[in-house]
Amino acid sequence: MTTAAMPPRTPDLRAQAFHLITGHTRCWKCGQQTSVSAIVLDGYEEAVDDGEWEPSAERTVLSYITAIDQGSLTAIHAVAPWMRFGRSETADATYLANHCTHCDVLQGDWFLADPGEVFFPTGRSEMQDFNVNRFDQPLEIDAQCSWSGWHGWLELGSGHAQEGET
Ligand SMILES: [Zn+2]
Description:
By secondary structure, the protein is mainly beta. The protein has one domain. It has 2 helices and 9 strands. The strands form 2 sheets. Strands 1, 2, 3, 4, 8 and 9 form a 6-stranded antiparallel beta sheet that branches. It has a 3-stranded antiparallel beta sheet with strand order 5-6-7. A hairpin with a 4-residue loop joins strand 5 and strand 6. The longest helix has 10 residues. The termini are far apart. Bound molecules: zinc ion.
C-alpha cells in the first residue's frame, strides 16, 4: 500500500437525533458564571467489529468528544459557540470542550462531571434547569459515554412527555 490517503474511518457512535443541554458553572479561572453544554443521546448505535452497529436504547451523556461530523458541529456552534475544540493539558487531549464566555479558558470535562458539579448532580435539588435543544439530524461522533441515575431526571421534551412529578 503506497497511498497516502487515510482510509475512511468509522465513528464510535452514531444517532439519528441528539440533544444539547446547557447549564452553567463558575469558571475556575476568572470566577464568573459561564454557560456549559453537553450532548445527550436518547438511544444510539455503537460501532463493533466487522462494520456492524450495535443499537442501544439507553440514554447517555457524552464527554471527551474527539471527533464529530461537520454538520452536527455547525449546528452545535450555532446555539453553543462556547463549545469548540481545545487542548486540555490535564486530560492530555484535544476535544470538543466548553470555554468560558468571559475569559475563554477551557472548562475541563473531568471537572464538569465531578459529583455535585453541573453534569453530575447528586440529588434533584442540585439539578440545574437545563436549556434543551433538540437536533433532528444524524450525528457521527467519537466520544466517551456515561450512564448515571440523574440522566433519568432530564426532561428532554419531544417524545418524553412530562410524567406529572412534582
Ligand atoms: Zn473565565
